[in-house]
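Appendix B: complex inputs.
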Amino acid sequence: MRQAGAYSGLLCGGVSGRTGPHSLPLARIKKIMKNSGEGVKMISGEAPIIFSKACDLFIEELTRRSWIMAIQGKRRTLHKEDLASAVIATDIFDFLITLVSNSDSHAVGGATNVMEVETIDYS
Amino acid sequence: MEDESHNNILPNGFNTGSTESPCLKTSTMTTQHNNNNNHQNHSNKEQDRFLPIANVGRIMKKVIPPNGKISKDAKETVQECVSEFISFVTGEASDKCQREKRKTINGDDVIWAITTLGFEDYVEPLKTYLQKYKEIEGEKLNIPKQLRSEQRLHQHQQNHNNNHDENNNQPFNGAYASSNLISQPPYVPTDQKFSLPFSPNSIQNQLRQQEQIDSVGHWYE
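Resulting structure:
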């Protein structure tokens, strides 16, 4: 008698079958976690599940704040510059400032960004 | 602010302790060397370093107006930001595990790290989400007995949060409004034990629809 559609609506707003009930693939999240540092040894099954929701909330918040920037610029298309503006304007996004400021960020690894942030902290 | 500065000190302290690691040594080299070393150290394909752009784009569209558009470079930037978010939180959780001499990062460590790094608003939705996931999956995950008892004690609060979460979801998921309304009964604990409440509702809906059809036909005649 259970209706899966109702649950999927509440949990993640409709998803393709590949990610099951989550909106983001758990295996990919786990891989990113493992690559985040040498200290990461083992990861429980719960952690990627929590991250799939946390990333959903993070993307929503970042997009919402970026959209406000686009609207203030009298535009209806979200651009990279709107994201940079939102990151600069929001305290909890400070860890992203180096990343959004680097125009070739796709070529730079996450570790470098982290180290650069550390350098800034020391100065 | 004070809490944030306090939190910043601990990670730096541990990072200082790890200055011997090769990764940190490369930070003194030029950018090119960093890129080369990163390329060697992280041989993963580019697509493995980010979440799929289609999933990211779909989530972004949920929170902007229907007539809004999202450029490709914006989606790519968010892809990178999300990976950075995962690494940032995972690093904090990993540091906590090392301090406590544990080897496995679990869900509570992630939630603790998210709270510590300033994303307190995410904590209640995350706990609600995890609770629902466990109910649906029949607790396939291994959970210590203490956690189980704690969850039972807080079940009432979770249900209250569920109602709140449901209200929040309605504005953003207009397409699921009807299903949300239909699914309200399952979130009352006592009703969960019985499947009967669904049948009468669906039958009544069908009867109402038939009545509407009949009335329309009659009016037409």
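Strands of chain B lie at 69-70, 104-105.
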